[in-house]
Amino acid sequence: MTHPSLSAYVLDVGGGSVFTRAGGGVPTIGSSAALGNPDGGDGMPIVMVHGAVISGRYMVPTARRLAVMHRVLIPDLPGFGASDDPAQPLDVPGLAGALHDWMAAAGIGRAHLLGNSMGAQVIADLAVRWPDAVASLVLVGPTVDRAARTRMQQLWRLAHDAFLERPSLIPLHLRDIVRAGWRFATSALDIALDDRIEEKLAHVRAPVLIVCGDRDPLAPQAWCRWLGTQSPTARLEILEGPHALNYSRPAELAECVERWIDELR
């Protein structure tokens, strides 16, 4: 099957530029009202949110597969990728607020939100504060495991995961780290460590799907299983693969998300 290509454009949000990739019929450059129009599936777009110190580029393999049936949008959050830098690094609530502002600017009133790693923390925060904007949450390798909530433990697990991912992810990630700078990269890790996703899931009204890679050292199965017990609406799916399933196992993840959305109709 031929998967649609993605367009790229810059959207002005509160005086700052947010670089966005989009597929499923989104024009390369168009009005904000056009960006949120339904394009198939259940009539709502899928917004994909990247993790810490990486841009939305590694979401593209899964996004292209989902774009066959859905409108898919991938913003680079402020301070990441090709988007403008904020005056100070944003914490998880700040990033969630920026994501909500971007959705409003793009004309997206409600969407399925998919986040990997720290992106899962961001969308969980948004779901608590703006529940009407969320049709469902897909948390892929959600961080941070309560059994490893130190910088050194996370760096060790990240190094372990590097050997499990598709080799092409490493240079992609390194380019984004160089672009961000080491100081910003370490502050982003600390921001993730300071956030407690488990305390928020109990307050999420939307259906929640937790997707865990069976070889994910950053969000291992024991953590994901326990995290699922913190939400009254959560379901757990375990796929073969490492932490960045959206890059290393895009076909399997896209199929999982498609089944999830089909069941919610």
Sequence-ordered SSE layout with sheet pairings:
Elements: E1 7-13, E2 16-23, H1 32-35, E3 46-49, H2 60-66, E4 72-75, H3 92-105, E5 111-116, H4 118-129, E6 134-140, H5 151-162, H6 169-180, H7 182-194, H8 198-201, E7 208-213, H9 221-228, E8 234-239, H10 245-248, H11 250-264
Parallel strand pairs: 3-4, 3-5, 5-6, 6-7, 7-8
Antiparallel strand pairs: 1-2, 2-4
Features:
single chain; 265 residues; alpha/beta; Rossmann fold; eight-stranded mixed β-sheet; 8 strands; 18% strand; globular
Structural description of this entry:
With 265 residues, the protein is of the alpha/beta class. It has one domain: Alpha/Beta hydrolase fold, catalytic domain (Rossmann fold, 3-Layer(aba) Sandwich), CATH 3.40.50.1820. It is 40% helix and 18% strand. It has 11 helices and 8 strands. The chain has an 8-stranded mixed beta sheet, sandwiched between helices. Helix 2 packs across helix 11. The two termini are 25 Å apart.
Helical segment count: 11
Q: How many runs of DSSP E, i.e. beta strands?
A: 8
Quickly count the domains. 1
Radius of gyration, in Å, reads 17 Å
Overall pLDDT level: 91
CATH class: Alpha Beta
SS class: alpha/beta
Q: Tell me the span between the first and last alpha carbons.
A: 25 Å
Percent strand: 15-25%
Helix content: 25-40%
Q: Return residue spans where pLDDT drops below 50 for at least 5 consecutive residues.
A: 26-40
The largest pleated sheet is described as:
8 strands, mixed
Helix-strand pattern: EEHEHEHEHEHHHHEHEHH
User: Strands across the major sheet, in which order?
Assistant: 1-2-4-3-5-6-7-8
